[in-house]
Fold each of these.
Amino acid sequence: MTVHGNGLHAFGEQPLPPWRRAVLKVGSSLLAADDGGLTDRFAADLARFVADCRAQGREVVIVSSGAVAAGRGLLHTDAAGLTQRQALAALGQAPMIALWQRLSDVPVAQVLLSHDDVRNRRRYLNARATLRELLRLGALPVVNENDTVAVDELKLGDNDNLAAVVAALVDAEVLLIATDIAGLYSGHPLRDPHARPVPRVDAITAETHRMAAGDAGAIGTGGMRTKLEAASKAAAAGIGTALFCGRDADTVAALSRGTLHGTWIAAHGDRLLARKLWMRHAPAGLHGVEVDAGAAQALGVRGASLLPGGVVEVKGEFGRGDLVEVRLAGDATARVLARGLVQYNATDLRRIVGRHSRDIESILGYRYAESVIHRDDLVVLPQEDAA
Ligand SMILES: Nc1ncnc2c1ncn2[C@@H]1O[C@H](COP(=O)(O)OP(=O)(O)O)[C@@H](O)[C@H]1O
Ligand SMILES: N[C@@H](CCC(=O)OP(=O)(O)O)C(=O)O
């Protein structure tokens, strides 16, 4: 095993599983300049990596820290209180976005999110639709925490966790976490002389968390602890995580070729299945929609989305993004055929029942989607589940 000039054992190389959409999280440790403010030094290679990915037909969403560091550089202050850091983040957000725009060959879109935005189902769907549309348009979304309002998150330095949430939000296959260290070590790499590289984690255990219990670097906030939390969230959503050093040009270049020098944290299972699991096990007796036989057939046999034309009746009140049940109209057993996240609230849905998708906009004055429930948001229940 080779040892770096900095005394740390190096990571070997391993293939990165194939992917089409990724979230790349870039920590403050890679963007903060030694003398205050931000630097392009490492971001330039990461931006080139993103451009290479796009040239290969892949999509990347960046989750970038660095707003506080940028704000600090503008005011030359070492103020560290929570409100002060929130103010610094507000000051530094525009320069942070400007840095990525300078380095990107496509337009950069600023997306500010807080955990609240993704906990609320309606906002979750809106955020997801916006991010997907940005990718479809070929833009580069750069997400940061909405630090002005996200008090807890700023306190925790939680962009790692936000990146995992965004990865699930956009249905990414991998979460790439670029930081200032080569990967996960078995102990704090700077304090534990016996610390060894951990190239692969198949399941995050108490032992893995113990390895990462040490503090963060001088500039970053979460350290390995929040990176493992993020990887654990991603794994539960069926998304694998790569931890690697974004300061090492060779490591970043190798990623474009599908090679990882760092730590790979495996997912628990299939991505879409993981997302659908909670729908299947949600409590029964939710509000819902009744569909005609053609729609029931399309959902069950073809795995199609539910279109308004197949909906016969809307039962109860629900909001956009709520989990609802799908039943066959007129079925005396009232069997639940499927569950899914609905795109329209009950009031508006009643107005488009039985209508063609192309009429949605003229009836409602807006259109979120052509389907009432998109097939990715729908789980068809096997008959034994359908109480
Ligand atoms: N077991 C560990 N393996 C690797 N790094 C660790 C470990 N425990 C603590 N760290 C620290 O975590 C730091 C990276 O996290 P952080 O400073 O928050 O970076 P970022 O700004 O990229 O999020 C490393 O520089 C290292 O000092
Ligand atoms: N939202 C804050 C970053 C918080 C954070 O998680 O920082 P880091 O540990 O460097 O990823 C900012 O833009 O400065």
Note: The chain is about 40% helix and 20% strand.
Amino acid sequence: MAPTKYADRTIPKISLHDFSNRIDEITQQLVHAAETDGFFGLINHGISLEEIETMFSTSESFFSLPDSTKSTVPFTHLNAGWEKNAQIRPSTGQPDQKESYQMQFGANMSGLWLPESTLPGFKSASLEFMNKAQSVSEKLMICFARGLGFDDEYFIRAHDVSRPESQTVLRLLHYFEVDKSVPVPEGYYRAGAHVDWDFITLLFQRSGQSGLEICPGREVSTGFGIGDVWTKVEPAPGEIVCNIGDLLMSWSDDRFKSTFHRVKTPTDAEKDYFGPRYSMAFFNQPCTDAVIQGPGKKYEAVTGKQFTQAAMNRNFAALKAKKEALEGVKMEASVVAS
Ligand SMILES: O=C(O)CCC(=O)C(=O)O
Ligand SMILES: [Fe+2]
């Protein structure tokens, strides 16, 4: 396989400082970033470094539980719960080298929280952090609504996390330590190249735990083709890396770009980070009954439930095609979404 080509590209850094007074300027910056790169870094967003680090410690306490405990809250088709080495990306046909636990606010989490006695305080700390991530997201939603000519509350209503129809997710991720002395098999990634299918993703990373790579500015994101020039994104303390997902791309009639990204498996003993990597991704998903259609009506109106289902089906179909191409055989597979 040809080696990846890299380019140093700067991702716009957008400050939410003094939001209500600077809303016009912030809207302009967000819209520009969404129309061009599809990625941007958020600073002065209102979640402190300490709050982020505390949530990372909470995440570590979850992942350090035995697998036999974590498997009591397994991943479900409602896009919540724990999985390990089970997410196969259509771009690679291999399972990501990781475990993850997805939490939601509403009814989809039924039976998927651990008992309080197993991890005291875990649920309340997680929900508190999720609510903070939601407040940041709502600021972005106001700006994107303005950019597209909708009323300020339009996207906030469609992503109301206080309703049982909410599908928004906080995903805790743990990529395993990699042994420097063992060669990494061809095609293995900590997370294979993909686009997210949500509205917008807020990604929290830990300093020093590098590996995220992005391929900004795709014209379309309906296929699983991998862009050829990638850019490494080093974690900056306290910064939230945001990317537009397929939902906002569709809701903007393709004006805003959903972009490919991945997490590289370390291979270069000099430059890469081989230790365990923790990250957290907050996926803004529409309520199941939200109606999705852009201002120019480029696509048929669909509900949040239909959009999610179609994204999962598309993932599954692409995965199946990839597997058949790789193995030349038909296979049965399950796919973990987002
Ligand atoms: O862990 C990361 O840095 C990226 C995770 C991601 O892209 C995802 O889970 O969709
Ligand atoms: Fe992603």
Note: The first strand starts at residue 5 and ends at 6.
